[in-house]
UniProtKB/TrEMBL annotation:
It holds the Pfam family Ldh_1_N. It catalyses: (S)-lactate + NAD(+) = pyruvate + NADH + H(+). GO terms for biological process: glycolytic process; lactate metabolic process. GO terms for cellular component: cytoplasm. Keywords: Allosteric enzyme, Cytoplasm, NAD, Oxidoreductase. Transmembrane segments: none annotated. It comes from Mesobacillus selenatarsenatis (strain DSM 18680 / JCM 14380 / FERM P-15431 / SF-1). Residues 7-145 form the Lactate/malate dehydrogenase N-terminal domain. This is L-lactate dehydrogenase. Residues 148-312 form the Lactate/malate dehydrogenase C-terminal domain.
Length: 326
């Protein structure tokens, strides 16, 4: 009996990549994990350490170190490689180095025969996702960034503490750049199906005045609060990667706030940014277009303008593109 082996490659075995691998392994999401890093010894060490977890998990996942040449039959290639922002920097300030890493990496991955789904977590994730799409030549539905999935989770966490409900009973998204220009689509956030804005109005006496703008600012900045205290963030994004990976393999048709290549949705083209999308075994099935308020539309346009400004700094080497897409 033939059985498809679910293979995931983690490219970049630093704290984010290893945390993602640990979450994937513990949840039994795939049959094989391939750990790839420019530092081969690091990749070997992580794969050995992870393989020693198997006796304590509910499923057997084979873990091994590999190279770009081993990715030809991988279903999902998770890219976490790239520099974290330094104190005082934004995620966008890491763009130049991140783009150069992709220029070197993506042609080698595509030369292996890879024809799966790219899942990008490297920052600035929206622009790097676009860059990988350009370099890979893959259809737009199969190049996906983690986008504002983690930001949306952080928003739900803050709201759950205010409302004293499980964050999984809160539905809604932050949208736009995974960075300082993101915004919360308050008009579409609900708790157990009831609009959040209605709850805040009805329970003003119990809850007091809730500063929604401050909540968004807290969501934007909390990653850097973590960075100041422990150097970088990795558990949250690691579990987000595992969650997205599982949703792909399970063909869940789950709606997640991801960095998607837009082709007319929200009036934008040639741009990746955080929007709710239906995720399936084939990647992005559909971008969900919310009917935003005028203020939310203004914030979305501002966010895309910020991204386009930084995107203009990337030069696409036509020789690289020709080599990859041949």
């Amino acid at each position: 009996m033939q059985q498809h082996i679910r293979r995931v490659a983690i490219i970049g075995t630093g704290l984010v990549g290893s945390s993602a691998a640990y979450s994937i392994l513990n949840q039994g999401i795939c049959d094989e994990l391939i750990m790839v890093d420019i530092n081969q010894e690091r990749a070997i060490g992580e794969s050995l350490d992870l393989s020693h977890c198997i006796d304590f998990t509910n499923s057997r996942t084979k873990v091994r170190a590999g190279t770009y040449q081993d990715l030809g039959d991988a279903d999902i290639a998770v890219i976490t490689a790239g520099p974290p922002p330094k104190p005082g920097q934004t995620r966008l300030d890491t763009l130049e180095i991140g783009a150069k890493i992709m220029n070197d990496m993506i042609p080698q991955i595509m030369a292996s025969g890879f024809n799966g789904i790219f899942l990008i977590a490297s920052n600035p994730v929206d622009i790097i996702t676009y860059h990988v799409w350009k370099l890979s030549g893959l259809p737009r539905n199969r190049v996906i960034g983690t986008g504002t999935s983690l930001d949306s989770s952080r928003l739900k966490t803050y709201l759950s503490e205010i409302l004293d409900v499980d964050p999984r009973s809160i539905y809604g998204y932050t949208m736009g750049e995974h960075g300082d220009s993101q915004f919360a689509a308050w008009s579409h956030i609900s708790v157990g199906g009831k609009p959040l804005l209605q709850i805040l109005e009805e329970q003003k006496r119990q809850l007091g005045d809730i500063d929604l703008d401050q909540i968004v600012e807290d969501v934007k900045k909390v990653g850097f609060e973590i960075l100041k205290r422990k150097g970088t963030t990795y558990y949250g994004i690691g579990n987000a990667i595992a969650f997205i990976t599982k949703s792909i393999f399970n063909d869940d048709h789950r709606i997640i706030a991801l960095s998607c290549m837009l082709n007319g949705e929200y009036g934008e083209t040639e741009l990746c940014t955080g929007v709710p999308a239906i995720l399936t075994r084939e990647g992005i099935k559909e971008v969900v277009e919310l009917r935003l308020t005028e203020e939310e539309q203004r914030k979305f346009r501002n966010s895309t303008a910020v991204l386009r400004n930084y995107m203009s700094s990337i030069g696409y080497d036509e020789k690289v593109l020709a080599t990859v897409q041949a």
